[in-house]
Structures are given as C-alpha cells and as structure tokens.
Specification:
Strand content: under 5%
Oligomer: single chain
Number of strands: 2
Order of helices and strands: HHHHHHHHHHHEEHH
Shape: globular
Helix content: over 70%
Structural class: mainly alpha
Length: 360
C-alpha cells in the first residue's frame, strides 16, 4: 500500500466515524423537529437534550479532520470539489452553524415561545447539514465533479436525482442511528414509554433508509452506469452485510432488546460507507482523477500519516473517555440551572428550559 492509498483509507475511516456519530447532532435533529407540539413532544425533546448536550459538538471533530486531511493530502481533488460543489457545501456549513446556535439559544431563552422557535431551527439545521453533505457526495459518486477550478456545473452537480437520493439517505441514516442510540438512552434512564417511542422510529427510519438506498442505486444506474456497475460488482458483499445488520437491528427492536442494537446499527452504516469507497477506488473523482494522480508530495503524505497516528493516540482516547463517562451518568449538571429538574428529580424530564451546554 502506498502512502497516498493509506491517506485515502484514513479519509474513509473519518467518513465512517462521522457517519457513526449521526453526522449532525447524532441525527437527533429530525426527531426533535417531528416530536409534536410543546406538550406532546416535551419528554421526547427533553431526552434528546439530555443525550446530546454533553457531546453535541464532539462529532464535528471528524468533519474538521476530513477537511484538513483532504486539502493537505489531495489538494487537486479538494479544490475541484469545493469550487464545483460550493453551493451544497455552503448550505451544509449554514446548517451546522444554524443548529449549533439554535441548540444553545433554546436552552437559554427565557420564553417558551422562543425556545420552541429555536428548537425548530435546530431541527431544520440538523436536517440541512446531512442532506447537503450527502448531496455533495452523490455529485462526486455520479462523476459530476471534473478536475479543475469550478470545472463542473454548479447547479446540476448536486441538483440531480442521484444527489437528492443520497442526501435523503444521509438524513435517514443519521435518524436511524440516532433513534437506536436514544432507545438505549431511554432504557438507561428507565423510561419505557420513550423506549417504545424511539424503537418505532428506529424501525421507520431503517425502512426509509432501505427504500432510499434502492432509489439511490436506481438513480445512479440512470445517471452514471459505470459507477453503478462498480457498486454492484465490487460493493455488493458489503451491501449484503449492511442489509443483514439492518435486519438484525429490526429483530432486536421488535423484541425490545437493547443490547446489541447500537452495534448492529453502526455495522450497517459502516458497510454502506465502505461499499461506496470500494466501488469508487482507486478514483478520488470518478473517472478523471485517481488517488495516485491527485496525491500531494510523498513527504506531505508521510507526515499526514504520522500526525494521524498522533491524533489517534490523543484525541480518540479523550473522545472515548467522554462517551464512557457520559454513559455512566458522571457528567453532572450545572447546579446553577437546577430549576430545570422535573418532579421526580430527573433534569431531562422537566418542562422548563434544559441546562445550557456551556462553552464548546
């Protein structure tokens, strides 16, 4: 394996880790937006707040890592993608900022009406970001991004059936993972009604994901037959693994079994990401730029791999520790906002403003 291929593998790993985290806000924005009215959706939103608050920005570590690695290791591909697909990528950045600002505002706003508006903006931003990123990925996979500065059509490169299907698939994928994570959160917090609530949504998002995956393949067949043939020929074993993992998660959800549910979910999502990567290799931009042709200097690539190892040894343990102490309930609430506790003393059950996430 060359250094360029190793860096490309690191990029695929980064995409996988970002996908495992539900892309934006662990996919919870969709469920927050569709939870219902202020009263009917109060407890579902409170659980989402309690689950997301301690870790709500940690997942974007992987997005920043992907951007830096791509522009350093594969500058030609990065420039081509950013200039041709600047519209969906700008919308993705807008969604990330919008959901972050609205999530913080919802927790600090004094009036319920403003909190409700901020919550709606949080949900919309959390849908806009993964959809736009998925649409950009669909444009790349459909060979609509040629090499060069703004060389591709800046409208049809992402407003096409394949991009739209992949964008919706990204939203469904994040929503599915989020629902499986929230099932486990509800079980941990002894809320059986919310466990059933999110279990049904996990199944619904999974079914939608299967349908959108089929739609994406059909669109790719009509849009870029060569890539479709590569997905079928090279990525089909991983697609089968993903479908089997999804079937296992369906079975666990229907039986009310939480153990293994999240594992089945992440395996299914990883298989989906890797099927795309295997099908597209060795191209960075199908079918105009290969990994070797688009790579930076050998010295740059070697240093990228060295610093990836440093990051793996420092950042990954810190994130693992964050998730572990969060799952153990050891991230204490700020005592200055104890007013948000519910009648039973559980902060996430209250109908007052949830505590502020603090600085990020």
């Amino acid at each position: 394996m060359t250094a360029a291929e190793a860096v490309a593998g690191v990029l695929v790993l980064g995409v996988t880790l970002y996908a495992w985290s539900g892309l934006a806000d662990y996919g919870a924005g969709l469920w927050d937006l569709t939870a219902g009215g202020r009263q009917s959706g109060r407890r579902a939103r409170a659980l989402i707040d309690a689950a997301v608050t301690p870790i709500w920005e940690a997942n974007h570590v992987w997005l920043v890592f992907l951007l830096i690695t791509c522009w350093t290791g594969f500058g030609i591909a990065f420039a081509s993608i950013m200039t041709t697909l600047f519209v969906p990528l700008t919308l993705a950045a807008l969604g990330i900022v919008l959901r972050g600002a609205s999530f913080a505002l919802r927790k600090d706003a004094a009036r319920r009406g403003w909190r409700h508006i901020a919550g709606a903006l949080f949900g919309l931003g959390s849908i806009l970001a993964p959809f736009s990123l998925g649409a950009a990925l669909g444009g790349v996979a459909a060979a609509r991004v040629p090499v060069g500065n703004a060389a591709g059509d800046q409208v049809t490169s992402w407003l096409n059936p394949t991009s739209i299907a992949v964008g919706l698939l990204a939203v469904a994928m994040g929503a599915y993972l989020s629902a499986t994570y929230l099932v486990a959160e509800a079980r941990r917090r002894d809320a059986p009604d919310l466990e059933r609530y999110f279990r049904a949504r996990a199944v619904g998002a999974g079914v939608a994901g299967v349908g959108l995956g089929v739609a994406a393949l059909g669109s790719l067949w009509a849009d870029e037959r060569a890539m479709f043939d590569r997905v079928v020929a090279r990525g089909s074993p991983l697609i089968v693994v993903g479908i089997l993992a999804l079937a296992v998660s369906f079975g666990l959800a229907r039986r009310g079994v939480v153990r293994g549910l999240r594992v089945a979910g992440v395996v299914g999502v990883a298989a989906l990401v890797w099927s795309w990567a295997v099908a597209q290799a060795p191209y960075l931009l199908p079918f105009s730029l290969t990994i070797s042709d688009g790579a930076g200097s050998p010295a740059t690539l070697r240093w990228l791999l060295v610093w990836t190892g440093v990051a793996a040894a420092t950042v990954v343990p810190a994130l693992v520790l964050l998730y572990v102490i969060d799952q153990r309930g050891q991230l204490a609430e700020d005592p200055t906002v104890a007013r948000s506790a519910g009648p039973d003393g559980s902060p996430w059950r209250g109908d007052a403003a949830p505590p502020s996430p603090g600085p990020t």
